[in-house]
Every structure is written in structure tokens, then in C-alpha cells.
Amino acid sequence: MNTPLTLNERFTQKFVSSHEFTALQPFVSAADTLIREKSGLGNGFLGWVRLPENYDKEEFARVKRTAEKIRNDSDVLVVIGIGGSYLGSRAVIEFCQPVFGTSDNKSPEILFLGNNLSPSHMVEVLNKCKGKRISVNVISKSGTTTEPALAFRVMKDLLEKEYGEDAKYRIYATTDKAKGTLKKLSDEKGYETFVIPDDIGGRYSVLTPVGLLPIAVAGIDINALMAGAFSAMNDFNTDDLGKNAAYRYAALRTIFSRKGKTSEITVGYEPFIASFCEWIKQLHGESEGKDNKGLFPASMIFSTDLHSLGQYVQQGQRNLFETVLWINNPKTDMSILSDPNNLDGLNFLSDKTLNEINRNAFMGTVLAHVEGGVPNILLELNDASPYSLGYLIYFYEKACALAGYLNGVNPFDQPGVESYKKNMFALLGKPGYEDMRAELEAKLK
Ligand code: PA5
Description:
Layout: E1 5-8, H1 18-36, H2 51-54, H3 57-73, E2 76-80, H4 87-96, E3 109-113, H5 119-129, E4 134-140, H6 146-163, E5 171-175, H7 181-189, E6 192-195, H8 209-217, H9 222-235, H10 245-258, E7 263-268, H11 274-288, E8 296-301, H12 310-315, E9 320-329, H13 354-371, E10 376-383, H14 386-406, H15 418-428, H16 434-444
Parallel strand pairs: 2-3, 2-4, 4-5, 5-6, 7-8, 7-9, 9-10
Antiparallel strand pairs: 1-10
Bound molecules: 5-phosphoarabinonic acid.
């Protein structure tokens, strides 16, 4: 069987010499030891490393049973969560499902809520739910995050009005196994609960029930997703930069960062990759962006963005490199028609498929951007199957952890996220924040 993912370094060679990997190898080995022996910063959050083999099999089976129930009794599943509590499931669902509708026309529609504070978004989701059979999966490790907690307050009220006592059979909570407001409420109300393991942080949680329940409700094969991750876990279980593609990718990012590149653009040539790029941005952004360090993670979808940001990539500041996620075997393809009149002059394409044209756009862009001084790392995914995606997810997780340790930061905390929350609570008059409120209001005058 083909390996699901190939790291192609051809378009980085102009910018990196092989001795740079040799020089980095001892540091990679040391960082690998921190992961392997759980001896680095944030070492309480390494549960994802062996998760593809150590996951709770009984709970996994319950996720599948519950997903089947929701698929049978619901038209809509509202998934409430923010950050790591929704980006992974959204990424996988949008990657695997058709852009319009669902693959089998019988999966419930998945609506994401509680990931912003927009009144329009909230009202539109409520409108979409009208007249439909609704279930809710509320996901929060802490159980206290404002955005999902507010959304859940609204959805709980809606379900209780609609279904009375039976609302509890339509609400599923994914949260801490023992503590937190959401766990307490769930136990009191009798909601079915799923566990976010203590040793797995939000952005590493897509292969726990956080991601798996919504993904299974969408009709995506979670066995295949886990099998792909398992295979990646075995493939990336060496510190050798010559053999471990995840570490090699992390090393390349580190080398570019140290050469003055400040931003990595993840590029996809399929619009369904856009949400996966959002997941990557959270993974890298929260793991690496601290202590005044870290690459800024950006993303673009080509050829769409070649007609806007492409200008910047070609000729703007030379602080960029790109990582292109290319899918070798597309989900589908079609041939271009021949037109007898050829008024649009496109008959030179009529013996080609759309994928061939897309591939040539990809190759042409890579050559142009490399010529313009932007290194391109290519990640070639065999196909868009759940198996390959599971493999890719694990690849990114392992690479990100290593890159964080190489850069001397804790890849598993996110202390900076608290700053806006404290200010927001103070401005909204939360008890206990009175002094801070006065201070902030003075600044806003
Ligand atoms: O990666 C993270 O830890 C964060 O993005 C959290 O997932 C996010 O803040 C949501 O937190 P919680 O699940 O506690 O509601």
C-alpha cells in the first residue's frame, strides 16, 4: 500500500543544504526524548502521542452507537464548542463531505455554534433549526468558556421548550470526566457524557470524542480515521530526520524560521481543505506563538487566492514560505469539453481533465513562487479518504510538538488566550473584576 503522505522537498533545496539537517539532528533527538519520556514543558499533555492505540475502546463503541441514534432521530446536530473543541470536527467533516449536502443524503446537517459571539450567527442557526428534529453536542473541557456556555444556554432552552423532559435524550456533553460546570450540569440533568482525557489539550483532541462524535454523526468512517492515525504513529516513531517525515517537516520549518522567515502559508488547491487549514492554524498558532517567538500560521486556497494574495506572495516582503497540501487522487474529476467554434480559445484544454489543469496551476505556481524567493514544502496526500486524513492529522500533531520543543517553548499551553477574556469579563461587569473594569474604562475614554 502507498504511504498516505509524502514529504517532497524538491522546492526547498535552493534554500536549505543537507548539512543543516545534520546540524539539527542532535537537537531533534533531544526534543524527541522530551516527547518520548514526557520530560519537557507541558508534559502532562502528551496523551495524544499513543492515543491511536490507547483510546478507550468501550467509549469509542458508545460514540458509534450514539452517532447512529442521532442519525436516526435528528435532522440537525448542533455542535457547540470553540477552539480545539470544534475546529477538528469541522475540519474533518468539511474535508470528507461534499461541499453541498451530505454524502448519503441521510446524515443530519451539522451546524456549528458557540464559536463566536455574533448575534446574526446565533439567530441564523436558530432559524435553520425551525421545524427540524434537533440534537445538541456541547463540547467544553473546562465547561466555563463563555462562547459555548452562552450558546448552550440558548439551545438548552430551545430543546426543553420543544421536547420537555425528553430534551435530556437529545443533549450530549463532551467534557472533563469529573470536574467543571458542564459535567455537574450533565450529571444533574442526566445527559449522556463523553470524556475529554485529562492529558489531551483542546487542539490535540480531534481523535477523542470531541471530534469523533460529530464526525461519526456526519457518516464518516471513524475506524478508518483512527487506523490512519495509528499507521502514522508507527511511521513517525523515530528521531531520525532521514526517516521521520513529520520531524523532517518540523526541522524545515525551524530552519526557515531561523533564516528569517516569519510566516508559513499552508496552501490547498481544494476549497474543502479550508477548514483543515484553520485546524492547522490553531495547532501551530497556540502551540508555538509565545515568548515572542513562533512562525505566524496563515492559509490560502489556490487558485482562488492567487487572484488576490498571490501578488503579495510573488512580490511582497520575503518573510514567507509555503507548505502545499496536494491531494494526488482527487475525490472526483471531469474532462473539459471541446467547442467547435473555440470562441473562448480554450480548446487547447479540451483533451485534459480539470484535475490536470489544477495540477498544472499548482506546478506553475510553485515554480513562480520559488523563483520569487518563497520556499515551497510539498505535502502530497495520496487521497482524501478518512484513513489518509487520520494519518495527516497525526503527522501535524507530531511535527508541531517537536517544533515547539525545538524552539524552546511549551507546545501544550496557551496562556495568552486568557488576556482578552479577563478584559471582556471586566468590561461586562463580572463580579470580582470591579477594579479592572474601572481601569479599562478609563483607557477607553
Ligand atoms: O486548544 C485549546 O485548549 C483551546 O482552544 C480550547 O479548546 C478552547 O479555548 C475551548 O476550551 P474549552 O474546551 O475548555 O471550552
